[in-house]
Prior knowledge:
single chain, alpha/beta, Aspartate Aminotransferase, domain 2, Aspartate Aminotransferase, domain 1, 2 domains, 7-stranded mixed beta sheet, two-stranded antiparallel ribbon, 11 strands, 35% helix, globular, binds pyridoxal-5'-phosphate
Amino acid sequence: MAHENNYRDRSVLIHGKFRSEKWDFQDHIIPPITTAVSFRLRSAERGAQGFQQFANPEIDRASATPIYIYDRLDEPCQGLLEETLAFSEKGECAVSFATGMAAVAAAIDIHVKAGDHIIHHPAIYGCTHGHIHMWLARFGVEATNINLNHTDQLISAIQPNTKVIYFETPCNPTMELIDLKAITTLVKEINSTRDQESQIVTIIDNTFASPYGQRPIEHGIDFVVHSLTKHIGGFGATMGGVVIGPKSAETPLLLYRKDFGGSLSPDAAWHILTYGIPTLAVRMERQQTSAQRVAEFLDLNGKVARVAYPGLDSFPQKEIALRQMRDIDGDFAPGAMIYFELPGTPAESYYRAIKLINHIAQNSLSITLAVSLGQIRSLIEHPASMTHSVIPPKTNSKPESTPAGFDSP
Length: 409
Ligand SMILES: *Cc1c(COP(=O)(O)O)cnc(C)c1O
């Protein structure tokens, strides 16, 4: 076997030492960042074995020593992160992605083909709406949006080709909740009459609550997706996404990631693993305390028409909130997100919001006009004209024309 002593130092500096204990993570308090794009395969046989083992449902990824090949397929920092994330949601497996949207796309797409049907709640993340209605529609996947809190409407919307029920709770941005138990009980009942091929899967985007504040798999939901960019990453410095679900989905998710290419960079995985996840609970606790005070202030403020925050007594779905929004110790966890509306007609409310946000943008130090969430700064944004502007006007409040007394933005 070749030995590094047979090479000039400069060659070893380029090619690395032949043997290194650096791949042994057992004794590292913090995992090393490993940014190699590809991995030494040692022999043709081991290379072939690596390809044979990748995304192989017969290999237990949790216990088998992986043969790493190429970062887009699998990589140690992602692997360590995925184990922790699966644990955080009490799921059987987790597959990470480059962004939350890459994870949302994977979670939905592995379950549908042309001719299939998706049901989703009307209030969903703008890009998720775009993925379903702009892209999947082009590939012959039908979608119906229906208020999932109206069980009768949901039952009549379910078709023989319905494969996915997709939603967020709390919904971005309205903070409306969906009753997890009601959905999973109904889907379980319907699935008991269907064959293996036509089972309906439930997918929830749990980004708003984070695994600190809600673990939907414990309520019978099949798949959880997260934008790791938000509460889990926690500092607004890295993007990422994850799908957590049953072991049976691990192979299709890994293959989807390999072929669509939305793999999480090891650097981002390392940051989320090292800084984001260890501080999640302490950040969420503090942000929740602040959110409660801000929501109470807004609730009592005469210039605000309506505040939606699960921690307020006025929250219309308080009973559902108390039942399913529970932190890792079992205490009520209303979260760190607040939605509020300003008074007037929809058009007046729309322009009042823009006026308020411009005032904050110019005058506030501690509230920043920016999209995203879950960072250590308080952010404010206007969904109707920003993150949710792709959602058709009937479901958001963008007016046809500027009302009297308001400047056109
Ligand atoms: C931000 C967000 C996403 C998308 O995540 P990215 O990391 O930006 O791709 C999806 N769902 C919700 C609820 C989000 O807030």
